[in-house]
Automatic annotation (TrEMBL):
Residues 620-920 form the Nuclear condensin complex subunit 3 C-terminal domain. Residues 734-749 have a biased composition (Basic and acidic residues). GO terms for cellular component: condensed chromosome; condensin complex; cytoplasm. It comes from Monopterus albus. Belongs to the CND3 (condensin subunit 3) family. This is Nuclear condensin complex subunit 3 C-terminal domain-containing protein. Residues 726-751, 977-1040 are annotated as: Disordered.
Length: 1057
């Protein structure tokens, strides 16, 4: 068939097919819709053009009214108002009218949406007259011809704002700084302004960054962002920023400056210091700024390590998340994702724990697949070649294996891909530990050799740590590993720094305590008394006799051989046969003599044990013994093996001349005494003597051992009938003069011993050695918290030590006592009674401190607030019923009694102020008695401040319910637009900088209210400062409640005019 006929047949077939018409209708409908859409689009374009034409005739008043609404397109408003501005010949009236309507928004301090929209519109309109960005050639040409002046309208707005920045109203000052900030921020990157205008803005903002209101300071600081010159060593903006970061009391101001400050060598230390800011949000932003603006290579090793150490252990989870999610990824990104290079930047040999924490944080944010992709270059045995081992690689290997093992069953398969079996690894570890060299006297003077040995020791430590990740369930592998660890502990050339770690890993593989003791005792015996070969001297007379015998035998053999030859020649064969037998016997005798001579010439060796008492050997043995005692179960009694070690090793080492040996021996003695009450009683006096007479580090070890024994056995350990003593009760505190421990009636000897121990610990609190002072304070806190002693005077001593400016740099002491105070007070009512009894002595000590005493610098108000918070009934873990008499009731009576003694004393005002912060019980009898006391005080006290405080307290006692209702009704009064102005007249009057030695732990009830009011008055905006934003629904609801419309004010002004 031809192509023409085929086409005709297909056309005929299509016309007969009903689907053909259906598809045709669909295509027609689609075309019709497209045509309709095109007509509508053209209609919309015409309407838009008509609207734009109408908008071009818009007035300034209408533009400001429309700008208040968020849904209006500000770009269109700006374009229409710009068109009108350009059409005017005389711009003066426009400038004046525009500023007139702007003033309505500038008198509102509150962050109302309508006002914020107006400010945004003004900033856009004022900067729309700027010329578009120019190329470098055009800029150079302009510089040759002379720079053009700024636009008249922009200059007019700036001049108006700069005339108003000193206004009395803080609302006007705030809006001025905000507008300048937005104007400068809306300009192009390469925008230029007149030098005089630049200087004027600069001077004005430098004044406003010291404003009384935080919001003004925030906007002024942000306005100077583009005015700073980091390369100028005398840049006033940089100087102002550094001053704010260091001294500004408002956290939001510090955050604003952090987000604006340019990084340079001068500002970097200030930003680093903000990572230790008291406020969580400031610390978070500081880490984000460092991640975004500072290259890891711009920081020193110490700065990198401190950042990670503080950030990864910050008390706030949000700060820790920022370090893991921002700082570490930013550093890795700048190092091309090379984790080994990052470890090299951290100097892992000196800060291994920080590097491990950083690696764990990186691994947590890394998918499981990438963990194995980023593994080291392992060989076919799943080991790193010895030549490729570096501190960074081996630490990465250890951290990766520990992280995978922590996953449990999920990580078992992954662990098999990065770690060999136990037997293979044991051989690998043995080979590397054997290769660690021992330096001679000459090599120790070579720095390169010393560094090489230090590096090898560090790698050895990490390889030993890796044994904890091995699968030791298989018997053969575990035995191989045990054999290697035992041999390395007995090997004399093993570095001393590895002994403790090797012992720890060895004991981990042995679950039974008896087997542990036996194994370690055998190793100690091999180290202290190694097997040596002893040789006996050779006897010269015996040797000479054997030589003579040998010569005689040789002569007889020669004679016999000569006779044999003669017999053979004479053919006397029977005689020859006899001679032949004689020659054989003589040769056997000769060989025997030769063997005897050879045996006598090689002296017989003998294996004997020789005891070694050098300091290094004793330190090795004592370290293994201390680790063994530490790992033993505390309930296990002392056996014959430990007793032997005590008598032959530990006690003789206490009298050793080497201080390091004595120190480890004291640790062993204290740990061993924990397993036996009798041994503790026997050696307590020895430990007390050491704590007073030896070197500092040994005294601290003895002091800690004494505290541990008292914690376990109590002060009853010091009594003679030790077997009949019972545990100390934790009921009401003993009120002794010297603060004796709580116990039943004991003999005079035990009481004197307990008192002497407390006197010794009390003297240590006044020691000039900070380590000894800290150890004593920590021990007393432990004994007090565990109810082994209860003394109000000792608690007062600890409080004074905590506030003493002398201990300001002792971070460990301050942290320990700060935690102890809170935990101790919350534990029980009896503890709060002890604190209440120590209140007056502590206050009197601080008040009566001479001018030369460091306690004179302590803020007494803060001390009172601490006691009030610690004795608050609601702070107890198990609060008592409200009807029960609480500790604050007793505290109120005590303060009233002190005020009655001397109504004119300076502390009366302090006590009167404190009374209103107490949580009194609801017992009517107590309230009535206290009311009578207050009435008597009102008649005696003459100070007006005290009288007002006492009358306020009396009103609270008379009818607390009506007073609460009165407060609630007054709190519901409506607020005007500028309500914040009254609340923020003097926001920082009550805020005082803490003196040296002052520590704020908990504020009183009234203090908390005032701080909240101060925070609300200093409420600062978060513009351009990263912060968590609320949800859309919450935002809408809040805006509806606080909606403000400027139109009534504008219309009212128009009607009046």
């Amino acid at each position: 068939m031809s192509l023409t006929n085929a086409g005709a047949c297909q056309a005929k077939h299509r016309t007969q097919n009903p689907m053909f018409y259906k598809r045709l209708y669909v295509r027609i409908a689609v075309l019709a819709r497209l045509h309709l859409f095109e007509n509508r689009r053209q209609c919309d374009v015409r309407k838009t053009e008509e609207k734009m034409t109408a908008d071009q005739e818009i007035g300034i008043k209408e533009a400001f009214q429309r700008a208040q609404k968020g849904h209006n397109n500000k770009a269109k408003l700006v374009a229409s108002l710009k068109s009108r501005y350009n059409s005017l010949e005389d711009k003066t009236l426009f400038h004046e009218e525009f500023v007139h309507y702007l003033k309505y928004a500038m008198i509102v301090y509150k962050r109302e949406p309508a006002v914020e929209h107006v400010i945004e519109f003004v900033a856009r309109f004022a900067t729309c007259f700027q010329s578009p960005p120019k190329t470098e050639e055009e800029e150079e040409q302009e510089e040759e011809e002379g720079a053009e002046d700024d636009h008249p309208f922009l200059c007019y707005i700036f001049n108006f704002l700069l005339e108003s920045y000193k206004a009395n109203s803080h609302a006007v000052r705030f809006r001025v700084c905000q507008l300048i900030n937005k104007l400068l921020g809306s300009m192009a990157e390469n925008a230029q302004i007149n030098d005089d205008l630049f200087d004027h803005i600069h001077q004005a903002m430098l004044v406003r960054v010291t404003d009384k209101f935080p919001n003004v300071r925030i906007q002024a600081a942000m306005a100077m962002t583009r005015l700073q010159q980091p390369k100028d060593p005398d840049c006033p903006t940089i100087n102002a920023y550094m001053l704010i970061l260091e001294n500004d009391t408002n956290a939001e101001v510090r955050r604003a400056v952090l987000s604006c400050v340019a990084m340079c060598p001068r500002t970097l230390p200030k930003v680093l210091k903000r990572t230790r800011d008291i406020k969580e949000n400031v610390r978070k932003l500081a880490y984000q700024v460092l991640a975004d603006k500072v290259h890891v290579k711009a920081l020193t090793i110490e700065q990198r390590v401190n950042l990670l150490q503080q950030g990864l252990h910050d008390t706030s989870e949000a700060v820790r998340d920022v370090v893991c999610s921002y700082l570490l990824p930013a550093w890795l990104l700048r190092l091309d994702g090379n984790i080994i290079e990052l470890l090299h930047r951290l100097d892992v040999e000196n800060c291994a724990q920080t590097a491990l924490d950083a690696l764990r944080a990186i691994f947590r944010c890394m998918p499981t697949e990438e963990l194995l992709q980023n593994r080291m270059q392992l060989d076919n045995k799943k080991l790193i070649p010895v030549d490729s081992l570096t501190p960074e690689i081996v630490l990465y290997w250890r951290s990766l294996c520990e992280f995978i093992k922590a996953k449990g069953d999920e990580g078992d398969e992954m662990l098999e891909q990065v770690l060999p079996d136990a037997a293979t690894y044991a051989a690998y570890l043995y080979g590397y530990l054997k290769s660690v060299p021992e330096l001679s006297e000459e090599q120790r003077s070579d720095i390169d050799q010393v560094e090489l040995v230090i590096t090898k020791k560090f790698i050895s430590q990490q390889l030993i740590h890796l044994t904890g990740c091995l699968d030791t369930n298989e018997e053969g592998g575990r035995k191989c590993l045990l054999a290697v660890l035992q041999e390395m502990l007995a090997f004399p050339q093993t570095p001393f720094s590895l002994v403790s770690l090797l012992t720890e890993k060895l004991l981990t593989l042995i679950p039974d305590d008896q087997r542990r003791i036996q194994t370690v005792a055998e190793i100690i015996s091999d180290v202290k008394e190694p097997i040596m070969e002893a040789s006996q001297p050779v006897d010269e007379k015996e040797s000479r006799r054997q030589q003579v015998q040998l010569a005689e035998v040789k002569v007889r053999i020669l004679e016999a051989k000569q006779t044999l030859e003669d017999c053979i020649t004479a053919q006397e064969f029977s005689r020859a046969a006899e001679l032949k037998d004689d020659i054989a016997e003589l040769e056997n005798h000769r060989n025997q003599i030769i063997q005897e001579i050879a045996a006598s010439s090689q002296p017989a060796d003998k294996e004997i044990r020789t005891e070694k008492n050098d300091p290094e050997t004793l330190q090795r043995c004592l370290t293994m013994c201390a680790q063994l005692l530490k790992e033993m179960n505390i309930k296990m009694q002392i056996g014959p093996t430990i007793s032997t070690l005590m008598s032959s090793l530990i006690l003789p080492s206490i009298a050793n001349a080497h201080p390091d040996v004595r120190n480890i021996a004291v640790v062993c003695l204290g740990t061993c005494a924990l397993h036996s009450r009798e041994m503790a009683k026997t050696h307590m006096v020895l430990l007390l003597q050491i704590a007073q007479l030896d070197e500092v580090k040994i005294r601290i070890s003895a002091l800690r051992a004494i505290i541990d024994l008292l914690l376990l056995f109590g002060f009853q350990l010091l009594s003679k009938p030790a077997a009949t003593q019972t545990a100390l009760p934790s009921q009401s505190p003993d009120r002794q003069e010297e603060g004796a421990p709580l116990a039943e009636e004991k003999g005079d000897g035990s009481e004197d011993t307990a008192q002497s121990i407390l006197v010794m610990l009390s003297e240590f609190l006044d020691s000039e050695v900070s380590e000894l002072r800290t150890a004593a304070a920590e021990g007393l806190a432990k004994l007090t918290y565990n109810s082994r002693m209860s003394s109000s005077k000792m608690f007062s001593r600890l409080v004074l030590l905590w506030y003493n400016p002398v201990t300001e740099d002792d971070t460990l002491l301050r942290h320990c006592l700060g935690v102890f105070f809170q935990l101790y007070a919350r534990e029980s009512r009896a503890h709060q009674e002890v604190i209440e009894e120590s209140f007056l002595p502590t206050i009197q000590t601080v008040m009566n401190a001479p001018v030369t005493s460091p306690l004179a610098e302590v803020d007494i108000n803060n001390v009172v607030e601490l006691f009030v918070e610690l004795t608050r009934p609601s702070a107890l873990i198990k609060p008592s019923p409200n009807t029960e008499v609480c500790v604050h009731d007793y505290l109120a009576v005590r303060m009233c009694g002190e005020m009655m003694k001397d109504p004119k004393a300076p502390e009366v005002r302090l006590y009167a102020k404190t009374l209103s912060n107490l949580e009194l019980s609801r017992d009517e009898t107590i309230r009535k008695d206290l009311h009578i006391l207050l009435q008597e005080l009102v008649q005696v006290v003459k100070d007006r401040f005290c009288l007002r405080a006492l009358e306020k307290m009396m009103n609270q006692l008379v009818d607390s319910k009506e007073h609460a209702e009165l407060l609630s009704t007054s709190a519901l009064q409506p607020l005007d637009v500028n309500a914040d102005e009254t609340a923020t007249d003097e926001p920082s009057k009550s805020a005082k900088r803490p003196k040296r030695g002052q520590r704020k732990v908990c504020t009183a009830k009234g203090g908390r209210k005032s701080s909240r009011r101060a925070e609300s008055s200093e409420e600062s905006d978060g513009e351009n400062v990263p912060m968590v934003r609320p949800s859309r629904k919450a935002k809408t609801a809040a805006l509806e409640k606080t909606k403000l419309d400027l139109n009534p004010l504008i219309n009212q002004e128009a009607n009046v005019s």
